[in-house]
Amino acid sequence: MTRETDFTAADEPAEPPARPGGATLSDWLEGARPRTWPNAFAPVLVGSAAASFAGGFVWWKALLALVVAWALIVGVNYANDYSDGIRGTDDDRVGPLRLVGSGLARPATVKWVAFAFLGLGGIAGLVLSWFSAPWLIVVGVVCILAAWFYTGGSKPYGYRGLGEVAVFVFFGLVAVMGTQFTQLGSVTWYAVVAAVAVGSFSCAVNLTNNLRDIPSDTEARKVTLAVRLGDSRTRGLHAVLELLVPLLATLALVAVTPWALLGLLAMPVAWKANAPVRARATGADLIPALSMAGAAMLVWAVLVSFGLLLAAP
């Protein structure tokens, strides 16, 4: 398998045989990377709470938004598994199991599973857009294309240091503000602040993963933001994303309601998530930081959402 980043369908290697017995249900679940699911749950929770605070909560639209976010993140995880696997990027992987890289599943199977989840997100998004604002369909199409071309296609932007930018935009700004907009019909300033905090947390999750993979990504010529910045500056950026930005966002939300200070209770979790990074852990020792970063984001989202609901008219 090639390690080149310029890849087309014509270059795809012959499909390797899957291991005897194939992937189990547990393997497929691990391949969906549940540790990243808070990236889907947190923005919908906060966006719905912001809509409720403004008097516009619509439960079935919130549920559809949750399906969209969850299906897209599972879809992008399988898409990354497929694209990285056929490029050989996962050959020396330290982190959790990858279906293609490990040989547990055929690349074509993983690709179609990715398409299925992206399609599910697209259908849910189409319904949500139709009953909210039809122009959001265009936003949905952009989201799906961004999910696939993160590591797919001949020029994946995830290999050019733009992964964290995409995570911030799509699982922060678009997810939070889009959730509020589909229910309320507008976006409030405090939803924007919350979107920045959630996007920052989401970036920290992605950055933790890329920090762990700096050696293998460098060898595979996968130029992530962590590879561009180097080890030390990546660790500094992680502290900004995991600790500073959410703290400032929480304090800014006090202008809406003092109950937003509940978000500060999530900071010890964020501090713990940053601990392995501060301690200069490497390789597999960074895996706990990945799950803890997601936990910090979800705890912050639950607490701030609860604060907004307590203060709702």
User: Roughly how many Å is the radius of gyration?
Assistant: 19 Å
Q: Proportion of β residues?
A: under 5%
- What gross morphology would you assign? globular
> What do we call the CATH topology?
Farnesyl Diphosphate Synthase
Distance between the termini: 59 Å
DSSP, total strands: 0
CATH class: Mainly Alpha
List the total number of helices.
13
Overall number of structural domains: 1
Main β-sheet description = none
Order of helices and strands: HHHHHHHHHHHHH
> Can you tell me the residue ranges where pLDDT is under 50 for at least 5 consecutive residues?
1-18
Based on the coordinates given, report the CATH architecture: Orthogonal Bundle
Mean pLDDT: 89
Notes on the structure:
By secondary structure, this protein is mostly helical. It has one domain (26-311): Farnesyl Diphosphate Synthase (Orthogonal Bundle), CATH 1.10.600. Helices cover 67% and strands 0% of the residues. The radius of gyration is 19 Å and the shape is globular. The protein starts with 24 loop residues before the first helix and ends with a helix. Mean pLDDT is 89; it is low at 1-18.
Features:
disordered N terminus, 13 helices, 313 residues, Farnesyl Diphosphate Synthase, mainly alpha, single chain
How would you summarize this macromolecular structure in one to three sentences?
By secondary structure, the protein is mostly helical.
What topology does this entry show?
Elements: H1 25-31, H2 38-53, H3 59-87, H4 99-102, H5 107-130, H6 136-149, H7 163-184, H8 189-212, H9 214-219, H10 225-229, H11 231-252, H12 267-278, H13 287-311
